[in-house]
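Example record

The entry below shows one chain as it appears in the dataset: sequence first, then structure tokens.
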Amino acid sequence: MKYFFYSALFITLLASCNDNNPKTPGNDNPTPGLSAPATISYAILKNYPHDTTSFTQGLSFYKGQFYEGTGNYGSSKLMEVDLATGKAKRSITLPKEFFGEGITILNDTVYQLTWKEKKVFAYTVKDFKKVKEFPINTEGWGITTDGKSLIVSDGTSNLYYYEPATFQLLHTQMVTQEGSPSFNLNELEYIDGYIYANQWQYPYIFKIEPGSGAIVGRIDLQQIWDRVKADDPHADVPNGIAHDTITNKTYITGKNWPQLYEIEIGK
């Protein structure tokens, strides 16, 4: 399966539900007067190779460099990756008792969550030297930053805001869809004032308004997920969102996917 770059014409894949979904998450009891999330289209601009052994838990761009955190006991890693080749330029492997989760970078520090171990590792971005280790009261799933706080998901409807230097909990924000709690929030990325979140086990990326926690938009990746699975049956769920603030480009992938996609997100 190949995708080609179009300089003048984008192929826009509109969000749609698919009968192959294990379930279409929705709101059986929407609050009257609250709007359903807007359907957000996207266009694939370019694809890059992605290591199919990478059980992707988090992606991040920082100062023009691309980073990836992966999971699974015994093979969880933190890597700086060459975007063009998909190969690690440098990496460290977590101790076998830790299952790596999401990553984000703030002030030259990489933060990497662990899953059930409830620990957060902090490294220098320059050499991946671990400088701190923080306890956390929830499971670690996804993490991002708004430039001030660290924002963490734990697979529920909640987002947790932490102070970066101490990892002290500042406040908790419930994410809602039409007034009801969402669920399975996973990998996170902060883009242009909104939080984007993969929904684990589903093809959706939610666009979340931070102040209210409301899901204001939804991207459906079912078509691209179907194509990835047709190309590689071992590919797992969509997971991984990264935004390069220097180039204003956005990238997505999934667990064990053979490609990383540069996309343009509709408004």
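Notes for this example: The chain has one domain: 12-16+33-265. The helical segments are 222-231.
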